[in-house]
Amino acid sequence: MILPIVAYGHPVLRKMCEDITPDYPKLQELIANMWETMYSSSGVGIAAPQVNRPVRLFVIDSEQIIESLEEEEKAEYPGDNGVKGVFINAHIVEAAGEEWAYNEGCLSIPKVREDVYRPETITLRYVNENFEPQERTFSGVTARVIFHEYDHIDGKLFIDHLKPLKRRMIKGKLEDITKGKISVDYKMIFHK
């Protein structure tokens, strides 16, 4: 089932999310719905707070980004073949490498894209959808997508990484999103 996506301005997007246990109600259904919601809205990742659940869960599919790149662009991200996966109770072990810019957008902040600087790699400790413990290091575009979704479960948004001047420049767009004055081709929840 396609779930509505929470729009910028809703308080759930600013909550520090809680770890969950394997008996979290209808967890597998929620994961399936998050995949369906992400793909139907042309996303590459979606976090539980974006579907109004303040829990440490996100899904990503960076394979679709890597597949869409030209060969010379793929060379910019050596060793990154993309990842399609479920991340539950994720916690950062290490963020390393030089920070680099990438133009990010967010389903909860539609029609706003900005360059964000993030480290080259991220090492995460998490459990997968079967609650099997994982610890992996990701790089390239995949690390970028993970950093972005990880921010969501920590109550942060990509715009928090922008310099104050840039934030002021997009203030009007953000206010329009908060007020529901935006047209997207997916269902959104606006905070009243």
UniProtKB/TrEMBL annotation:
Cited Gene3D superfamilies: Peptide deformylase
| EC nos | 3.5.1.88
The GO annotation for biological process reads: translation
Listed A to Z, the keywords are:
Hydrolase, Iron, Metal-binding, Protein biosynthesis
Q: Please give the cofactor(s) recorded in the UniProt entry for this protein.
A: Fe(2+)
Cofactor remark: Binds 1 Fe(2+) ion.
The residues that hold Fe cation are C106, H148, H152
Q: MF terms per GO, please?
A: metal ion binding; peptide deformylase activity
Active site, UniProt feature: E149
- The superkingdom of the source organism is Bacteria
Per its record, the protein catalyses: N-terminal N-formyl-L-methionyl-[peptide] + H2O = N-terminal L-methionyl-[peptide] + formate
UniProt function note = Removes the formyl group from the N-terminal Met of newly synthesized proteins. Requires at least a dipeptide for an efficient rate of reaction. N-terminal L-methionine is a prerequisite for activity but the enzyme has broad specificity at other positions.
Q: What family does the database annotate?
A: Belongs to the polypeptide deformylase family.
Name under which the protein is recorded: Peptide deformylase
The organism's lineage is: Bacteria, Pseudomonadati, Bacteroidota, Chitinophagia, Chitinophagales
Gene for this protein?
A: def
